[in-house]
Write a structure and sequence with these properties.
heterodimer, A: mainly alpha, Cytochrome Bc1 Complex, Chain D, domain 2, B: mainly alpha
Chain lengths: 718, 63
């Protein structure tokens, strides 16, 4: 059949190429700023939008969605065109996808430091940006499917399957986790439609799977394309790659409900499940082995080619992280690791090692291809590799040690039966040297990254201009949509692109439904506690300030039923205590102590002084000052709308309460402020400075309420 | 952390059916895929695994 000529779109690839680099520089810089806050808590003193609680979500979002996201799109736009022997479906959609995504990132970079956040980790963006994310994702989806439809290559290479899985699954996860009700169509504020336990379940269903389908499947797709490219030999076993794909997609769907509902399973299912859990190690490690063995017979090249070095370490890091993940799900290990820096170390093996190095290798390789030249300096790339690798080790190893150290200090009892380290702060100051080493490791990694930026910049300058490349390939022979005689079933399915995508989606959706349905049912099965009441209007405003400042990034609100935790914090947390919490604020890391029973533990003055300057009440603390709360006047103009929104979500506020909301705010604020007068120092310094109008008063009201309802102790099963 | 709250699921009527469905679905897909993949012809597998290595672009001047 006669060949057709066409051009590959390299311009869009170039755009994503530079976007990946720029956002890598920005996202990691914010990470470093955050890492140094652990050592110098007040080096950005008094600047609300540069405080830890607001920068940390900016770092995670930038690293995940801006750096890794653009890196995935970059590799996808380059490889899809070449694997399918066609230009992308629509240049307009490609551009819309690119600029739309960059707009989302810029909006995130503005709104997160300003304190607009839903507080749900890796889904912090507020509702208008969420809608934009979904729209742009759909644009990308149409462009991908369109390209598949006009392809000139019958077989769809396995890398693209991973891209398709990313497309459909992220869409489903993102929408379900971000269901929220705006307070007003003109404002940014919204409340999650789920509350408490249910919200936590949906959030971590998202969190768990987002790691799989945003940080793993797209990167595996890139691995299956760029590692063979760089090594110039086909993937070790294509059969294994297919098994790797299907098992990875389905293991998440199976593992989710399996882990959540383990106790309810009959014996035969538990036994079968255990057998399969063990068997699962083969395909997922098969993926790693498949990547590494692609280099069989090319190991001599690895010594010289920095690109292959990056890939080898990246794939090894993937293997380590995917081994560690299941280990961490074991009960005894989880009890130690949870809430500590171990998790932060684990996550960065995945992000710095696996994602960062796959993308670095790909960037070097593409720089040569796009600019049709050799690397400006192979030596510099080798230096980048070594400094980056050492950086990863210096980043993660100290955090593993910090995690262990802190967990054991939290749990240590002396003979008299009391905690050895009763003051939480002792367990923080102990691990400061580890934080210093972590910041050092991060600096090394960042230095390596900047070396790459310079190297690639010089490469681009010495190379030729990026132009669309001419290619030619025969069009697909038109054959009947029906399965041909002797045609294998899977080959036939691959011909039917839409059907393939729909089936893949149905598969994921069934799996999703199997997980979501119990989540939707669980709400009505949580034992109600009669004494748990909705927050007062002032406390609600205080809670919104708690969310705005991102307190949940360092403080948990979940006391586990361990002797060491009950001894340290008080009565363990009950599911029924969170029924009015839209969203839940349990947190995932204890840089500071748990706050669920903070209510009534200290007087109002303690909180007042603590927020003004934490080192006044806790010498040696690494909590930064929150002294703007004492200056900002509380804006409670939308309190009635907020309560109405929450009422629509099931919080039983009465009409009278909503009508009298503003008066109630003022009355309670006056009371909180009056209690501050117990301290003569307060009277002397702030006695007549109109403190009852300030944000700090609302925050104190919320903190003093937290976890106190249960003390009435009138538990009533529904 | 979720382990401390997931007991709330146990009180849902017939909740065990969900993990059983998902497990059977998983095993079914796994086994069917294994059979399909094993039945691929060696020649075909070699052919498609070469896909990324085919020439990216044709420079007409060099033709």
């Amino acid at each position: 059949m006669e060949k057709q000529q066409f051009y590959y779109d390299n311009k869009i690839v170039k755009l994503f190429f530079w976007a990946t680099i720029i956002w890598g520089v920005v996202g990691m810089l914010v990470g470093l700023m955050v890492a140094f806050l652990f050592l110098f808590p007040n080096y950005m003193e008094g600047i609300p939008w540069l405080s830890f609680g607001r920068l940390r979500p900016l770092h995670t979002n930038a690293a995940i969605f801006a750096f890794v996201g653009n890196g995935f799109f970059l590799g996808m736009y380059y490889s899809m065109q070449r694997l399918l022997k066609t230009r992308m479906f629509s240049d307009f959609l490609s551009k819309l996808h690119f600029w739309g995504w960059q707009l989302i990132i810029v909006l995130a970079a503005i709104t997160l430091p300003l304190g607009y956040t839903s507080t749900k980790e890796y889904a912090e963006l507020e509702w208008p940006i969420d809608i934009l994310v979904v729209l742009i994702w759909v644009v990308m989806g149409i462009n991908m499917i369109g390209t598949l439809l006009k392809r000139r290559q019958r077989h769809i290479y396995v890398a693209i399957w991973f891209y398709i899985a990313t497309l459909v699954t992220i869409a489903m996860l993102y929408i379900f986790n971000n269901l929220e009700l705006p307070v007003a169509m003109t404002g940014m504020k919204s409340y999650s439609v789920y509350a408490g336990v249910q919200d936590a379940m949906v959030q971590w269903w998202y969190g768990h799977n987002a790691v799989a389908f945003f940080l793993t499947t797209p990167m595996l797709g890139l691995m299956y394309y760029f590692v063979p490219k760089a090594a110039n030999r086909p993937v070790y076993s294509y059969r294994l790659s297919i098994i790797h794909f299907w098992t990875l997609i389905f293991i998440y769907i199976w593992a989710g409900p399996h882990h959540l509902l383990y106790t309810a399973l009959p014996d035969w299912a538990q036994n079968l499940g255990t057998v399969f859990s063990v068997m699962m190690i083969f395909p997922s490690w098969g993926g790693m082995i498949n990547g590494l063995l692609t280099l069989r017979g090319a190991w001599d090249k690895v010594r010289e080619d920095p690109i292959l070095k990056f890939f080898v370490v990246a794939i090894t890091a993937y293997g380590m992280a995917t081994f560690e993940g299941p280990m961490l799900s074991f009960k005894n290990l989880n009890a130690i690791a949870h809430f500590t820096d171990w998790i932060v170390g684990h996550v960065h093996i995945g992000t710095l090692g696996w994602n960062g190095f796959i993308i670095a290798g790909m960037l070097y390789w593409l720089a040569k291809k796009l600019y049709k030249t050799e690397l400006y300096s192979t030596k510099l790339a080798n230096y980048h590799f070594w400094i980056g690798t050492i950086g990863i080790l210096f980043y993660s190893m100290p955090l593993y040690i910090a995690g262990f150290t802190q967990a054991f200090m939290w749990k240590q009892f002396n003979d008299a039966g009391t905690l050895v380290y009763g003051n939480f702060l002792e367990t923080v100051t102990q691990i400061i040297p580890m934080y210093a080493m972590r910041a050092f490791g991060g600096t090394l990694y960042y230095t390596g990254f900047l070396m790459m930026v310079y190297n690639i910049w010089k490469t681009a300058k010495q190379g030729s201009k990026v132009e669309d490349e001419l290619a030619e390939h025969a069009p697909l022979k038109v054959i009947s949509g029906k399965r041909a005689k002797n045609e294998a079933w899977h080959s036939w399915l691959e011909r039917k692109t839409i059907l393939f995508t729909v089936l893949a989606f149905v598969a994921v959706a069934i799996g999703g439904a199997v997980e979501i349905v119990p989540l939707l049912l669980v709400d009505s099965n949580i034992p109600k506690i009669a004494s748990v009441k909705p927050y007062t209007p002032l406390e609600l405003e205080g809670r919104d300030i708690y969310m705005r400042e991102g307190c949940n990034n360092c403080h948990s609100q979940m006391i586990r039923p361990f002797r060491s935790e009950v001894e340290r914090y008080g009565e363990y947390s009950k599911a029924g205590e969170f029924v009015y919490d839209h969203p839940f604020l349990w947190g995932s890391r204890r840089t500071g102590p748990d706050l669920h029973r903070i209510g009534g533990k200290y007087n109002n003055n303690w909180h007042f002084n603590h927020m003004m300057d934490p080192s006044l009440t806790s010498p040696g603390t690494i909590m930064p000052k929150y002294n703007w709360l004492h200056k900002n006047t509380l804006d409670y103009s939308t309190i009635a709308e907020k309560m109405k929104t929450l009422r629509a979500l099931g919080v039983p506020y009465t009409d009278d309460e909503i009508a009298g909301a503003k008066a109630s705010v003022e009355a309670q604020a006056k009371k909180v402020e009056a209690a501050l007068h117990e301290d003569p120092e307060y009277v002397k310094n702030y006695g007549d400075s109109n403190m009852q109008n300030k944000e700090i008063i609302a925050l104190i009201a919320y903190l003093q309420r937290m976890g106190t309802d249960i003390k009435a102790n009138k538990t009533a099963q529904k | 952390m979720l382990r401390f709250i997931k007991h709330n699921f146990d009180s849902i009527d017939g909740v065990a059916i969900y993990p059983i469905i998902s497990m059977l679905l998983f095993i079914l897909v796994f086994v069917v895929m294994l059979v399909i993949v094993m039945r691929f012809k060696k020649k075909y597998i070699e052919e498609i695994s070469q896909l990324p290595l085919e020439d990216d672009d044709i420079n007409l001047n060099n033709e």
